[in-house]
Amino acid sequence: MNRQSPWLRLVRTNGGETSPAGEHEPPLANPTGEERAVMAAHGIQFDGCGFRFAGYRHELLADAVDEARLSGRGRE
């Protein structure tokens, strides 16, 4: 039985190069004006690779909004 190391399971192939998962994430499209208004209301920042709230980065704005609401720092 040949088991892979945990590191090998976290490697992603990128055009022949390998890098640990999460490194060199592709940029996301800039938020629309409506999305920026939602972000401002919830204290969410966009960094080009995700939506940040309370020190965490989310790929989806909806996930960041959910976290803001659950933390009590976002609006309903």
Describe this structure in words.
The chain is of the alpha+beta class and 76 residues long. It is globular and about 30 Å long. The model is unreliable at 4-19 (pLDDT under 50). The protein contains three helices and five strands. Helix 2 (33-42) runs parallel beside helix 3.
Strand content: 15-25%
Strand line-up across the major sheet? 3-4-5
Round the mean pLDDT to the nearest integer and report it. Answer: 76
How many distinct folded domains?
1
Summed up, the helix count is: 3
Class by SSE composition? alpha+beta
Region (Disordered): 1-31
Keywords:
76 residues; alpha+beta; globular; three-stranded antiparallel beta sheet; two-stranded antiparallel sheet
Task: Give a brief outline of the structure.
The protein has 76 residues and is an alpha+beta fold. The protein has three helices and five strands; from the N terminus they run αββαβββα. It starts with 5 loop residues before the first helix and ends in a 5-residue tail after the last helix.
